[in-house]
Amino acid sequence: MSPAPPPTRIVILGSGVVGSSLASHLSDLTHESLPPGYTIQVLSPPSLTTSTSLAPGLIGQLNALPALTTLAKASVKAYLTLPPGAFSQVGGLEIASTSEGIKILEERLEKAREAGLEARLIESAEIAKLSPQFHEPDAVSKGLYFPTDGVAEPSRIVDAYQTSARANGVEFISATALGIKHLNGAVKGVNTSAGFIGADKIIVASGIWSAELLKDLLHIPVIPVGHPYLHGSPRPERGEKSPFVRWPEKGVYGRDHGACEGFGTYDHAPLPVEAGEGAEKGWDERFDNAVERALSLFPEETRQAMTADGSRKLNGVFAVTPDGLPVAGPVGDIKGLWVAAGVWVTHAIGVAELISKMVLKKEREIAEWSGSEGSEGGYEEEVVDEEFEELRRVLDPGRFGGRGVEELRREAGGRYNDIYNLEE
């Protein structure tokens, strides 16, 4: 048996879906074979409204960007193992009502088949049967139905992964990260609202605040933007939730929350905001026209519910990037520093698994510490994982190097109006 390396301290900055699943995944991978003193800590900012807490939770796996399809499929596979209520595989619908839009659905059907995803084109009457609160039968609309898509409850996902991580000995610290300390090209720890915490490896998973934490080390164009989302007035639950619905031509989506309907729209000029103290901002009147256009898509009963007593409007903040992909991987030349930002709940676990592989790149050494190398421990001769290498390449945080800040901000803003990457 080789001698164990010195104790390693991993600190994760952020306790949303990405940070919590990272803590769970890392601790699962290492829990049974850790050398003494190996620790994983997660900084959980107190009283902070995060992007995770406001995420609408639509989990659609097919994307025009292959990397996002890969990450979403991995995430759904993981979500299906969580306790009931965290993820519901209710299916997803995309609706088109023009010949051009229907052609896009037909093309996406072929892409779904190539990606190994179940999908089928359906007529308007079947759309209305699957989701009557969002569609009335007509003579022109068609839908693309993805039965293995679903809806997530992000807070329950976070709870599940934090419970798992704590059971593996992960410590959650109520504190806000203020800055990363590094010396001679390697991380030393993080300054926090609760004092300095030493670390050998740091993973920045702070959502819309990630760019601010890394601003002195690497510019990552993760741009916070405001986004309108409305919850209708409460109603009796109908039992099993209906599929979520997207209107790609209109930039609108809706979902069944159980006790009400909800919808959001991207059909407005992007509105960059400052991350500030929370991911929920005051309502912006510049959303109003887009909301009215979205409401015109719904049956009368749903339209009324969206404006009745008990309904509510949210301006939730999430991040966009210039190429529509997350920023995930090592940060520059700083040893022991990684970032996972610009990540949707849709792709969170795929990204967490990717980062975990990077952080624990010497997995075979871990097996050696416990005397379980080779076939007994499951660590055979190293094989190049082409999928892993491709993800690492396209998500590399340094991929925007040499480009102007304002140019990148403009490109990121433009992605907001093509959020489903249909123009790829």
Structural features, described:
The chain has 424 residues and is α+β, with helices and mostly antiparallel strands. The protein folds into 2 domains: 9-51 and 155-222 and 324-402, FAD/NAD(P)-binding domain (3-Layer(bba) Sandwich); 92-147 and 223-320, D-Amino Acid Oxidase, subunit A, domain 2 (D-Amino Acid Oxidase, Chain A, domain 2), CATH 3.30.9. It has helices at residues 17-30, 51-54, 66-79, 99-114, 124-130, 154-167, 210-214, 288-295, 300-307, 348-359, 363-369, 386-395, 405-416; strands at 9-13, 39-44, 58-59, 87-88, 92-96, 120-123, 142-146, 150-152, 171-174, 177-183, 186-192, 195-198, 201-204, 223-231, 244-247, 252-256, 261-265, 280-281, 312-320, 327-330, 337-341. Helix 1 packs across helix 10 (348-359). The longest helix has 16 residues, at 99-114.
Entry summary:
By secondary structure, the chain is of the alpha+beta class. The protein has helices at 17-30, 51-54, 66-79, 99-114, 124-130, 154-167, 210-214, 288-295, 300-307, 348-359, 363-369, 386-395, 405-416; strands at residues 9-13, 39-44, 58-59, 87-88, 92-96, 120-123, 142-146, 150-152, 171-174, 177-183, 186-192, 195-198, 201-204, 223-231, 244-247, 252-256, 261-265, 280-281, 312-320, 327-330, 337-341. The radius of gyration is 22 Å and the shape is globular.
The average pLDDT value, as a whole number, equals: 89
What proportion of the residues is helical, as a percent range?
A: 25-40%
- The gyration radius over C-alpha positions equals 22 Å
State the CATH topology of the largest domain.
FAD/NAD(P)-binding domain
Strand count: 21
CATH architecture descriptor text of the largest domain: 3-Layer(bba) Sandwich
Q: Any low-confidence stretches, pLDDT <50, length ≥5?
A: 363-383
CATH superfamily of the largest domain: FAD/NAD(P)-binding domain
Terminal-residue CA separation? 51 Å
Q: Which structural class fits the helix and strand makeup?
A: alpha+beta
Largest sheet: 9 strands, mixed
What spatial form do the alpha-carbon principal axes imply?
globular
Beta-strand portion reads: 15-25%
The level 1 CATH classification of the largest domain is Alpha Beta
